[in-house]
Structure prediction request, 152 residues.
Amino acid sequence: MIPVLSPGPGAPSRRSPPPEEGESGNGKRRRGFTIIELSIVLAIVGILAALSVYAYNKVITKARFTQAKTVLKHLQKTETIYYTDFDRYTDNVALLHLDPVKYNHYDVSITLLDNGMNYLGTAKGVGAMEGDLWFITRDGEPTQDNAAKARF
Prediction:
């Protein structure tokens, strides 16, 4: 066991004596944070919040773009099946079983070309995706219109 030594008489104590009445504030311990410290913390929190909202909006927009590409690829596959059965393409979205509720950010339409031997599928953005426009043909990948407000 290690003996604990107490300071001898006249030795300085580690504890500061309690402040007496009438003393100036120089020897007092400070409590809390200063206004500058609090404003720096609030500024950092504000910057982090702004960055996270920006990143969240980018992810949401990218997910909606993926929805447009998915609906057009689905359109392409169902048109191919329809063509196999009837030797022509259709412009009736209902015959292709495209559920408009499932793809709620895009309106899908089909334009027939060459008397039903070719088609152009379009997905036009609605609501939050207003102004976004995607195309697909029977041979291609979904492509975004160059005049769209947001780009994939």
User: Anything to note?
Assistant: DSSP finds one helix and four strands in the chain.
